[in-house]
Structure formats: structure tokens, C-alpha cells
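can u do me a favor
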């Protein structure tokens, strides 16, 4: 399987990602890892 690098731009406060964004910014949250 080929690896794909993607950047997801998201605005807003990030409250729906709160457990993941407690210690890191939204752009640094690992997705699909």
C-alpha cells in the first residue's frame, strides 16, 4: 500500500477534537495512525 501525505486545514476552536487537542494544536493531531 502506498503512503499518502495529506494536510487538512480546519478552522474554529476545535472543541469536538478536545481529548486530542488538550496537549497539541489541531494541525499536530495524528489522524489515521
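np, heres the sequence
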Amino acid at each position: 500500500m502506498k503512503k499518502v501525505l495529506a494536510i487538512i486545514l480546519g478552522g474554529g476552536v476545535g472543541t469536538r477534537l478536545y481529548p486530542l487537542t488538550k496537549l497539541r494544536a489541531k494541525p499536530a493531531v495524528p489522524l489515521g495512525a
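The first helix runs from residue 18 to 21. hope that helps!!
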